[in-house]
Design a protein that fits this description.
alpha/beta, 2 domains, 7-stranded mixed β-sheet, two-stranded antiparallel ribbon, 9 strands, 40% helix, 19% strand, elongated
Length: 293
């Protein structure tokens, strides 16, 4: 891509799409427009209508470098350094899981409870365990003005990214972070405890797609030998930090409804509801705490 004729946006897009398709990437056309549009700051309409735009040599070089990263299976949004989630703009970092659209199902399951509590008490205190980018807690803050969130994580880089995202999305005044291994440093009680914990069994990690296995932090993926370590830790500690009539809401693996439900039932929690993701898989469980507090 050195001649002026090769630097038309349409030609650069066409060549990039071919490179990704030849590498076996199934969504080459979509990814090409997403990647190049993100790099150049162009929306979908501008990408379609701006085909005759001549790109500078530095723009072409930037696109070439990004394509090389994608060909090594680095996800598009990690290359761009950000992605959208439930109407938020979230910065990514190496210590954060890239939030997936299915996690929005967890937000949607929690919001009716948050609004109900806000209507009755005027304030909703939420504990978000293992925040990563802050996606879940920040989405709840954006949709529920009465909410206040404490986000915890063991990774300092994740906490810094979550705080940055709180500022970017205008909710920093209601967002706090704490370095904590689950409940180890947490004090006080909350109306809602929410988490998307690591839930993949250790032996399965190597079989994951390279986009996940090589770029998402292992601590956010590996749920121990059976994928349930985090749920056991949360179930053991949640009651001491949950207000009467509070809820615990969790993202789970597609085949973990029965096992996670049993873990929480053994700690005195009552199953409330299950929500499925966009692919029809079980994805979210909600439990009610002990009413006596």
């Amino acid at each position: 891509m050195t001649g002026t004729g090769d630097r038309r946006l349409a030609d650069v897009v066409r060549a990039a799409r071919s490179r990704l398709a030849e590498a076996g990437l199934a969504d080459a056309a979509i990814e090409t427009r997403m990647l190049i549009g993100g790099l150049l700051g162009l929306d979908a309409t501008e990408m379609f209508t701006g085909g005759d735009r001549i790109l500078s040599e530095s723009e072409v070089a930037k696109i070439d470098a990004a394509l090389e990263r994608r060909l090594k299976r680095e996800p598009v949004h990690r290359i761009l350094g950000a992605r959208g989630f439930h109407g938020l703009h979230l910065t990514l970092s190496p210590q954060t899981l890239e939030p997936r659209p299915d996690t929005e199902v967890l937000v949607e399951a929690v919001l009716p409870h948050a609004w109900r509590i806000a209507a009755g008490e005027g304030r909703v205190d939420i504990l978000d365990l293992g925040v990563g980018t802050g996606a879940i807690g920040l989405a709840l803050l954006k949709a529920c003005p009465e909410a206040h969130v404490l986000g915890t994580d063991i990774a300092g880089g994740a906490l810094a990214t979550a705080r940055e995202n709180a500022h970017i999305n205008g909710v920093a005044e209601r967002y706090r972070t704490l370095a904590s291994d689950w409940f180890s440093q947490v004090t006080g009680r909350f109306h809602i405890i929410v988490s998307n914990p690591p839930y993949i069994a250790s032996k399965i990690i190597e079989a994951l797609e390279p986009e996940v296995r090589n770029f998402d932090p292992m601590a956010a993926l590996d749920g121990g030998p059976d994928g349930l370590d985090a749920y056991r830790a949360i179930a053991r500690g949640a009651a001491a930090h949950l207000m009467p009539d509070g809820i615990v809401a969790l993202e789970i693996g597609y085949d973990q409804t029965e096992t996670v439900s049993a873990i929480f039932a053994a700690q005195g929690f009552v199953f409330s509801e299950m929500a499925r993701d966009y692919g029809g898989n079980d994805r979210v469980l909600v439990f009610m705490g002990n009413r006596s507090g």
